[in-house]
Here is the input.
Amino acid sequence: MNKAELIQVVAREAGLTHKESASAIDALTEAIKRSLKKGDRVSLVGFGSWEVKKRAPRNGVNPQTGAKIKIPGRKVPKFNPGKELRDIVN
Here is the structure.
């Protein structure tokens, strides 16, 4: 499912117009991005939570040349599904 399909489903399920559901989805994703940028955790009970994790620097290998390289550490967003979501998928 892509964003356009999600907008259609939300509009139909919530009884909103296409424009209103697009605005709601955009507002949700922007709020999650802003919270993660600040380092906050976002949790939707039953669905899951997003948080920022730090990846440590590590050594790697360039697959084309075989040369060893150093991969710097960085922050990455991580999603942890909630129990209810895990149960539905299984």
About this structure: Helices lie at 3-14, 18-38, 83-89.
